[in-house]
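A student in our group prepared the protein record below, which I am reviewing. This is what I was given:
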Amino acid sequence: QVQLVESGGGLVQAGGSLTLSCAASGSIFSINAMGWYRQAPGKQRELVATITSGGNTNYADSVKGRFTISRDNAKNTVNLQMNSLKPEDTAVYYCNANIRILIGQRPFWGQGTQVTVSS
């Protein structure tokens, strides 16, 4: 059984900062790419940022320069530091990881954490 557990969401004023954290646990052989996605009301889930096991990162254009993704391979964790938050960043944020388990590799998702940015 593999679980991704997120934390760190909340309510913040525009211009503020939040840090999201996600920890993977369970019968994990290895973790490849990890990332954060978000889904705003009435919209499709979209990629926010990803990071490979080697540390290569990719960001959505809308968050470049404001968000920073990082990971700790030893602890199976991934963080998202969000600065200069805007009301349009309001969404449920989901952690994602491509995890190798006994029967192969597959993506896993966290339960989501709400981020609300007030104007």
Notes: The CA atoms of residues 10 and 115 lie 5 Å apart. The chain has a mean pLDDT of 97. The longest strand covers residues 91-101.
